[in-house]
Amino acid sequence: MTVAIHILVSACVIGFAGWLAGRYPITAGFLVALPLATMLVLPISYHQHGDPQAAVTLARSIFAAIPVSLGFFVPFLLANRLGLGFWQAYALGCVVLVAGFALHRVLVRAIFT
After folding, report:
1. Residue among 32, 12, 18 nearest 4 (CA)
2. Residues 5, 40 contacting (CB under 8 angstroms)
3. pTM (2 decimals)?
4. Contact 45, 55 (CB under 8 A)
5. Do the Cβ atoms of 76 and 57 come closer than 8 Å?
6. Neighbour count for residue 110 (Cβ, 10 Å)
7. Could you state, in order of their start, the residue ranges of all structural domains in the chain?
8. Measured distance CA(26)–CA(83) in Å, rounded
9. For residue 95, which of 80, 75, 77, 78 has the smallest C-alpha distance?
């Protein structure tokens, strides 16, 4: 039952952000840029596992992932210059994320272990 409540709360937050994007895209962009997922996942993880050290490790991993994950947006920033459509920029952003994940693993091992 607890997992269902966590899923419901998370879905409501995401659904609200999606709805807001249609009416106020700039506000929605700011809201989505907030660490909403992190703010939801950290207490959920702590509640489910009861391990504060695991929650701290999770937060450190997220901290290292934030600058790496911003690479997803680079194709969108360059879309006009490169003549990319939405789906091309999206797909290229996903490719950049795969490379970013490999970089994240190296960073986390080097910094936090």
Report:
1. 12
2. no
3. 0.66
4. yes
5. no
6. 9
7. 52-113
8. 24
9. 75
Q: What is the pLDDT of residues 1-58, one digit of tens each?
A: 688 888 898 889 889 989 999 999 888 888 888 787 888 889 988 988 899 999 998 8
DSSP secondary structure, the chain, as one string: -HHHHHHHHHHHHHHHHHHHHHH-HHHHHHHHHS-HHHHHHHHHHHHHH--HHHHHHHHHHHHHHHHHHGGGGHHHHTHHHHT--HHHHHHHHHHHHHHHHHHHHHHHHHHH-
CA dihedral 106, 47, 20, 80 (to 10 degrees): 0
Given this model, what pLDDT does residue 65 score? Answer: 87
